Amino acid sequence: MKYNALFKPFVVANSFLIFVFLLQILKMKAFLHHYRFFFGGLIVFSIITISLFYSALKPAKTLPIYNPADVNPELVDSTIQYKSKYHTIADFSFVNQNGKTITQKDYEGKIYVADFFFTTCGSICPKMTTNLEEVQKAIRNNPKVMLLSHTVFPETDSVPVLKQYAIKHHVNDSKWNLVTGDKKAIYAMARKSYLAVKLGKPEELYDMVHTENFVLVDQKRRVRGFYDGTNKEDVQRLIEDIAFLSEQ
Question: What SS3 state is found at 187?
C-alpha cells in the first residue's frame, strides 16, 4: 500500500504526458491534413528545383573533334602530323564483299565506324569483329549509322574471301561494308584520314600494322572518337556516343 501511494503520482504524471503527446499528434495530423496540398506542392516544387539545379551544374555531353595533331604520331602520316584543325576524311573508292564499288557517297551524311583488319588475323581481329557485330546489332534500326572495315592485306583478302568472312560474322550488307582495294589507297586512308594504323616493315612499301581502334566519324566526315575494339566497356561507350551523335 505504501509503495502504491508512492508511485501513484508518477503514474498520474506519465498518463498526463502521454495524453498531451497523443493530443499533439492529433493536432499535427489535423494540421497536415488541412495543409496537405500546400506541403505536397512544396515537396514537388523542391524536387523539380533540385533536379533543375543539378542539370544546370552537370556539364552537357560533348564529343571532341580530332585532328592529326591530337593523335599519337605513330598513327599519323608525317606529312599531316602538324595539322591541328579542319581535318576530315578524304574521298575514297574501294570494293566490298559483294564486288560493289563503295565510295564516300555511300556514307554521305552518315555517322559511321571505321576499322582496319585482315581475315587471317588470329590475335585481336576476331575479338574486334565480334564486338563490331554487337555494334551492328545496336544500330540495326538506325538509318543514320553504318560500318566500314578495311583490310590491310588486300593482296590476300579478295572479294570472295571477304564474302566468306562476312557470312561467318553475320554482316548485314546494307549496314556494313568490308572493303579491299589498292594497298597505297588503303594506307593513305588509314594514316592520313582515320589516323588508325602504325607503320609496318620499313622495307615493304605501304606496309601497315593495324591497331585495335574503332574510329567514329560524324555526318561531316570528322573524327569524333577512338575506341578500343577489343574492350567491351569501350565498345559500349562507342554505342552510347553513336546514339548521342544521332540525336544532334
Answer: helix
Instruction: Give dist(CA 84, CA 114) in Å, integer.
Output: 21
Residue range 105-116: mean pLDDT, rounded: 97
- DSSP secondary structure string for all residues of 91-151: P-EEE-TTS-EEEGGGGTT-EEEEEEE-TT--SSHHHHHHHHHHHHHHHTT-TTEEEEEEE
**38-90 tens-digit pLDDT:** 445 545 555 665 555 545 555 678 999 999 999 999 999 989 999 999 999 99
| pTM assigned to the model | 0.76
- If DSSP states are collapsed to H, E and C, what string results for 17-58? HHHHHHHHHHHHHHHHHHCHHHHHHHHHHHHHHHHHHHHHHC
Q: Output the furthest CA–CA distance in the chain (Å, rounded).
A: 114
Radius of gyration of the chain (CA): 32
C-alpha cell at 209: 600494322
DSSP 153-168: -TTT--HHHHHHHHHH
CA distance 90 to 88: 6
Predicted local confidence at residue 235, as pLDDT: 97
Query: What strand order describes the sheet that includes 176-179?
Result: 176-179, 145-151, 111-117, 213-217, 223-228
**Has residue 138 got a pLDDT over 50?**
yes
